[in-house]
Amino acid sequence: MTTHIKPDWREQRRLQALALKEKGWTNARIAEALGVTQGAVSQWFSRYHKDGREALLYHPPPGAPSKLSENQLAQLPELLLAGAESYGLTGQVWTSQRVAWLIKFKFNVTYHRAHVCRILKRIGWSVQKPLEKATQRDEAAIEEWRTQRWPLLKKKPTKKGVVSSG
User: Fold this and answer.
1) Could you tell me the residue ranges of all domains in the chain?
2) pTM (two decimals)
3) Rounded CA separation 34/14 (Å)
């Protein structure tokens, strides 16, 4: 089964630059027309002169193919929308570690949690970092310290030439 890879917009821009060059346009004029730098146009033509038209075409990024199929990637947002608690997790926050667990649980595919961020970005999601607060935290005491004690501890500016006594 062969899949046709749609050329990206950058490829179209490079090929348009080549067409304009063949019409006699200068690099400066091409750069202005396409909204790029003259340096970019110069690099494109250097590659073109070295390797021909193929150098201007889209080439998929190197690396191993995705472990998740396109169908599985399409299912992931729906699984995330169900919420973390629907999978027995505490709280509704999705962290990269939790999403990695979900992918392993649902698709039997293992990803490092750092790579999960790239997958989420690809499907238009972002991870959420949970706010970690101590359960014994006393909000009233914190507010009192912030409004009463902290202002007394802060350094106050001194007048020029006057030494602080405290």
Assistant:
1) 9-56, 70-122
2) 0.47
3) 9
